[in-house]
């Protein structure tokens, strides 16, 4: 199972179980018509924001789950003239970057149940129209043999995945190791991060419990357990949207204990990088800046994300409260930050890529997902298209 999958299952199921009081959505057959694109000047011809002629007429971007604030950079590029295909589950509009119409359209597609939970690398090989896919490092490694992709930029710098617990039941524990010290089970839907914790002596193998079904019932009824979650969602949801809990949770980021994957990084099919090089040379810097701009002014994009969730009618629900909380958490917890090694936003760190392969390839071998841990880290990424002048501090 992909390292990114546990969180996705957790949030999807969390919103549909009877325990959670959430609002309903609109009709399943609803499809929004396009609106007029107002006051958006065209990008300067042949300038850095002019994608016409170098990129596809419609730049297709594939996410790995339902619309949410962690995907804000993609959705922030969708112009106000967009149309929503509620049946196909996609949104298409003018690709607007930094206030300019780039001359091409963008289509953003959600993943997860909308694509029968197929990994994004697999989707990219099934549908050649997908230019950029959101691929977490472990999923990239797992698909390397059959569906190789190359990461061209980071968007979330550090994983927001957490282990969470009830502070009252764990003596006010501040770390996973402290919370797990009494031997309570750590409940997850995949064994990759628990195996990572066990390999470091943070938990014992006997504490690994893979029975998590993505619902809050067990945590609410048995607060002695530890459970997977995401810092960008569960702390808000459990305190504000689950009345049977209604109080803070304790948690620690897995990124603090060696969970070094690049989450939902932007990737291109390995055999498509060269032929799309001219497009990527302009598009990757646009994506770098889009993430920064989104976090500075997320309101319109968050409203679009919530509207898309409402129109897609998949059982997934997502509130503006969660979206706003996610944005703040991404900033406060350095989930989105400049690359520490270079100070450039979106740049991939060679030493970190080596660490990712050294850490997770053996785990994936043990899990039977790949045959060999002999992987060249340099085959997984390129910084060729990164604009080194772009940073969150600039």
From TrEMBL:
PROSITE patterns to which the protein is assigned, alphabetical: PROKAR_LIPOPROTEIN
Gene Ontology biological-process entries: thiamine biosynthetic process
UniProt keyword Heme present: no
Organism: Promicromonospora soli
Listed Gene3D superfamilies: Periplasmic binding protein-like II
Domain of life: Bacteria
Keyword field: Signal
Keyword set includes Signal: yes
Protein name: Nitrate ABC transporter substrate-binding protein
Signal peptide: 1-28
């Amino acid at each position: 199972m992909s390292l990114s999958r546990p969180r996705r299952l957790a949030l999807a199921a969390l919103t549909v179980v009877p325990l959670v009081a959430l609002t309903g959505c609109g009709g399943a057959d609803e499809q929004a018509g396009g609106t007029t694109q107002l006051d958006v000047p065209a990008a300067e011809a042949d300038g850095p924001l002019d994608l016409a002629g170098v990129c596809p007429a419609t730049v297709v971007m594939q996410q790995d789950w339902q619309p949410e604030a962690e995907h804000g950079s993609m959705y922030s590029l969708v112009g106000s003239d967009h149309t929503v295909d509620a049946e196909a589950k996609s949104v298409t509009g003018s690709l607007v970057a930094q206030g300019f119409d780039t001359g091409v359209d963008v289509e953003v597609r959600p993943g997860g149940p909308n694509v029968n939970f197929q990994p994004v690398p697999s989707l990219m090989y099934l549908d050649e129209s997908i230019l950029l896919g959101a691929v977490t490092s472990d999923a990239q490694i797992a698909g390397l043999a059959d569906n190789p992709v190359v990461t061209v930029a980071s968007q979330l710098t550090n994983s927001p995945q957490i282990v969470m617990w009830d502070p009252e039941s764990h003596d006010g524990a501040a770390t996973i190791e402290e919370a797990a010290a009494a031997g309570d089970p750590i409940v997850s839907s995949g064994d990759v991060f628990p195996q990572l914790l066990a390999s470091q002596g943070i938990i014992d193998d006997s504490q690994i419990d893979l029975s998590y079904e993505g619902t809050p019932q067990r945590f609410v009824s048995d607060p002695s357990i530890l459970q997977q979650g995401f810092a960008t969602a569960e702390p808000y949801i459990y305190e504000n949207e689950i009345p049977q809990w209604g109080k803070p949770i304790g948690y620690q980021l897995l990124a603090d204990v060696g969970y070094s994957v690049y989450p939902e990084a932007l990737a291109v099919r390995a055999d498509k990088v060269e032929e799309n090089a001219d497009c990527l040379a302009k598009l990757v810097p646009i994506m770098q800046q889009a993430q920064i701009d989104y976090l500075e002014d997320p309101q319109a994009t968050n409203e679009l994300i919530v509207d898309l969730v409402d129109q897609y009618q998949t059982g997934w629900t997502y509130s503006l409260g969660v979206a706003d909380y996610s944005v703040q958490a991404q900033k406060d917890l350095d989930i989105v930050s400049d690359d520490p090694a270079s100070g450039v936003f979106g740049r991939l760190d060679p030493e970190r890529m080596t660490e990712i392969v050294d850490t997770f390839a053996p785990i994936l071998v043990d899990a039977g997902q790949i045959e060999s841990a002999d992987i060249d880290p340099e085959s997984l990424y390129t910084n060729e298209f990164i604009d080194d002048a772009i940073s969150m501090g600039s």
